[in-house]
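U., I forgot to send this yesterday:
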Amino acid sequence: MKKYILIFSVFIVCVLIYAFFFHQLLFQQKSFDFNRRPPEEAFLYDYANILEDVDEYSNNYLKGIKDRYEIEAVIISIPSLDNIRTVEEAAVEILNNWKIGKDYNGRGIVLFFAEKEKEIKLEISYELEDVFTDIFCGFVEDKQLRPYFLGGQLGIGLPAVMEELENRAQIKHQDDYTGKIISGLDDTLLSGGAGAK
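Result:
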């Protein structure tokens, strides 16, 4: 009887070890690296698995912005900042380390989500700041995305944001604007006259 118990115990241990390693291989998480962009050519990197509903749409839309307006924009979600950096530091680090916009005269945009902290940051490269202003970025973060992010409905808020990004990209691309025109657009945002509600 002891022999059967020993054989059964060894069998159970082997099954558990196999199951553990099989599970690790089958459900491996994509690893996120602030210092290096993944090799695949994508515009959406959803490490927090919160953007599945808009994955294909977002990749296609952002590719269109790159092709039409020569602005590289990426959307990134991570599970947590792990109290290592702020959302602002994380977005700047990604913009710089991943060299977003480098091949487009420094014209890059990072839309960054930290799931656990429910933080959002729209980071704009210096070359785009005259059109993609702090007021515009704040509007996108606080008014257009935060309510949808907190409600688990990014699939509703994100398409409206991409339209706003494209509108500003078009203005930048046409290169027919003044500071006064951009200020007027920003004033419209502040008065509640644009975007998803």
